[in-house]
Design goal:
Structural class: alpha+beta
Radius of gyration: 21 Å
Helix content: 25-40%
Strand order of the largest sheet: 1-2-3-6-5
Number of helices: 7
Largest sheet: 5 strands, antiparallel
Number of strands: 9
Strand content: 15-25%
Order of helices and strands: HEEEHEEEEHHHHHEE
């Protein structure tokens, strides 16, 4: 009887709690905050994302630094889609992380949160390790708008919708002369082009009209790559799953953070 195949080797890189803990330990200093928990976050597919909780104790001589428990988000990119299985990795260029960092810094600098009836913001970049593709940013909250939608009352849903609409208008108006990265987000363009390019493959699998799907790809999918990039900055994946809710806004209605800018 042939022996069973050996188990696949563990993934390399900063792809687990232990790997992230080791990475952070290698960069710690005597004044670094104490790590109290590392929690992998689900919901996304492209990257390895963790919520990092730390505690900081303030001494009498350093009272300005603040103390207490703090939550941050750590996002790491490997050269493949994180959700793809071992042995069938789907390549995904790590340059996506550079674009996200540039986008967060550009948009965050141009559009500080408004306090007139709500607050919408983007995560703050706290630290970025470019060689290791590790991004540390502020935590916008543990609940997405998608997850919270059914439990919100109608009036709050209306307020959130109005606030997000005003924020999108500000984004598009404020970034007419903003260029993020050299050549724009080519990785992102290829990713959202994927659905059009492979529409015919799905149709063929289910016995649908392949020719029509090829037409849709040629007619409309091609526009995605041909479209000019000098109009304004667009998020590209703006939906309730990429909007986080938090209770830290001064208006008492909770803050909104727009995430996933790669």
């Amino acid at each position: 009887m042939p022996s069973p195949p050996p188990p696949p080797p563990p993934p390399s890189g900063i792809t687990s709690i232990q790997a992230l803990n080791d990475y952070l330990a290698s960069r710690s200093t005597p004044t670094s905050p104490t790590i109290t928990s590392i929690t992998p976050l689900t919901g996304g597919t492209a990257n390895f994302v963790f919520r990092l909780t730390t505690t900081t104790t303030t001494t009498a001589s350093d009272s300005a630094s603040g103390s207490g428990t703090f939550s941050k988000i750590v996002k790491h990119a490997e050269p493949y889609i994180a959700a793809s299985s071992y042995g069938n990795r789907i390549p995904f260029p790590v340059q996506r992380m550079e674009f996200e960092v540039a986008a967060l810094r550009a948009v965050g600098g141009l559009m500080p949160p408004l306090r007139d009836g709500g607050c919408v913001s983007v995560p703050e970049v706290l630290e970025y390790d470019a060689p290791e593709k590790v991004l540390v940013m502020s935590d916008g909250g543990a609940t997405t708008l998608k997850a919270a939608y059914e439990s919100l009352d109608t009036q709050r849903v209306r307020r959130i919708g109005e606030e997000l609409g005003r924020w999108l208008a500000r984004l598009h108006y404020s970034t007419k002369e903003t260029q993020i990265g050299e050549g724009g987000n080519e990785v992102g363009k290829r990713m959202y082009r994927w659905a059009y390019a492979h529409l015919g493959d799905v149709a063929e699998k289910f016995g649908l009209d392949v020719g029509f799907c090829r037409y849709v790809d040629e007619k409309y999918g091609s526009l995605l790559l041909a479209a000019a990039d000098d109009v304004c900055v667009c998020h590209g994946d703006f939906w309730p799953g990429n909007v986080l809710l938090d209770d830290g806004c001064d208006d008492g209605d909770g803050g909104l953070t727009v995430v996933d800018w790669e």
